[in-house]
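name: query_chain
kind: protein
chains: 1
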Amino acid sequence: MSTENPFVALKEEMDKLVVGHEEVKIALLLGVIAREHIYVEGPPGTAKTMLAEIISGAAQLKFFFYQLHRDTRLSELLGDLVISKELTETGEVIKQRVVKGGILTAEICLLDDISRAPGESLNVLLRILNERKFFDDSIPLLTAIATSNPTADEYYNEPLDPANLDRFVLQISSQGLSYGKKWDEAKEVIRLYTERPAEYQVPPRVSKEVFDEYYQKLGSVAIPEEVQEALANFVATLIEDYGCDESNSMISDRTFFVKSLKIMRSHALLHGREVCTLEDLNALKYMTAFRIPEEVFLQLDQIIEDLTTKKKKTGTGGTS
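structure:
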């Protein structure tokens, strides 16, 4: 990343307090640049909430946290419901209005255990996230981060419906350091929390104006023809060589031929570039954790490397 890139400051703050979890950190940065929502699945204790809090603090954005449950009511997410009576010539009229709060006033929100929400509340919530509107009023939300525990029996958790899951462009499977056998990083956590003060205030590093500026830049990031072709080849490879189809994957034109361009542009800006390169195909890793079979996702680094290496070798002049 370029040293002049303001998102370096946000990454530095995350690195100060959280060891590892690079995939979640990058996904969060891509999410706030692209203003797309993020789904993170992982066991408790994998810093999902802390990372969201760090970004909101360092970027001076209004943050809302809510842990969903089976009895979640819409008023808990949207604000207080006020009921009033009004006398008219024809009688008494009961009116209700919402004093906006929660996700209606937040710029970043974290919705923990989203799959536990009852259907009615979840449907309204996802519609608001998708439209970024409450009735006719726009809301200031940049990015929502939804989290869930793995669907293994010990977490008593149900998977998010595929149609609902697809509302979250960025999708990450986060694994704990210990169960991931990342022992060096686990030792670093011990060292960090041995030395860290009990109270630590995340300092402001950037302002919302930076996000506005970069969002305006997003559409002007150039995507050369070779990168466009590589993206098409990526999807073709998943379908033709790895058996992805409508029965086991959520690959759609809308996601991979529209949203992926936006995320790749965000990846370029994150790395201080205003022109996409083949390296930005790596951003697709943050979109596919739950859109393709797990055994294919585990090979994704190699799939992308093979595509980009082949393209470089067959590029102009035949040079790599």
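note: The first helix runs from residue 7 to 17.
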